[in-house]
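Batch manifest, entry 17 of 40.
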Amino acid sequence: MKTQKQPARTKRFPQAFWIGVFTFATALVAVPLAGHGLWPQNSSSQIPAAVNRIPDNNQAHDINGQQDQKQNLEAANAERKRQIADDSEKLLKLATDLKSEIDKTSKDTLSINVIRKAEAIEKLARDVKQKMKLSVGGN
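Output type: structure tokens
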């Protein structure tokens, strides 16, 4: 006669038991950590007081002055760029006028008018070059 071996029965705990054990273990770890300051209890205490401070009248005036200065610098740069564009258009017109006058003259002669236009072009070109180098406010 063969004897059949019965499988060993292991006692299984219900799922609710394991959830309770996990919750208890988590509480055992979390409570001491919170008490020792490893978890912040009040987040505003970690922010420096200077960050939350409302600016006084002098600081507010300085902030407004900086904003006004920035706007003025931006306006000055925009005006400078507009002047460069206008001067460049004048330069192009003068150069085309000079070319047409040079084409009308003979090969060996230049009129005083042509020389004056060339000098005006040279002066305007230097002015445009100087304006291009400048930048108000260090941009």
